[in-house]
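Students often ask why we bother encoding 3D structure as a string. The short answer is that it lets us treat folding as translation between two languages. Here is a chain of 192 residues written in the first language.
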Amino acid sequence: MRISSVSDITANQVSFGIATDHYDRRDLRTGHRADQVELSPIFQAYAVPAANSQNQVNIKPSEVYSFGSINGKPLRFRLHSNGLIETNISPMIQASAPGTSVTPYQYAAAMHHRSYTEEEHREANRLISRLMDLLDLSANKMTMEEYRSRESSPYSVSTAKLLEHLGINPAEVFTINGVRYRFNNGILTRLS
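And here it is in the second language, the structure alphabet:
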């Protein structure tokens, strides 16, 4: 079946699970599967915990990491080699050429994107923005003053909230991509 637009498939024909890495297009009333397409690793059931037992985070490109949850829905992210971060809430979808059909993958990713509310998207974007700041700080692409000034931005979250989503214990010294930090009385301090 050729999908010309998202509206070509009715709601009763779409089903895919967060717990799987496949998208099935099937009639939900009969359960008949029409086709199946493998999704990006960002949708996989298992994601590596961002923080390890030593209170360290070492983000490597292409690995899928758990980033806590938003309203009980799992949040995962993946750093691409170009520095962009993709989430399972807002997966990267390669655009089709004008006049061509939407692929089953594009449709599945778009439907997954639509399964989150606007506020859930905003919260995920604020978390990712703050994560990118912390990664830039750790890579010496940003000063501590710049990092701290961005905390009050409406497009960001607090460092405490970011650390919670990463699985970091802020009461202890922690490491982000080889750089040691301490979080004390709401202030992030670089130790190395």
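Translate back mentally: The chain has one domain: 6-190. Keep this in mind for the problem set.
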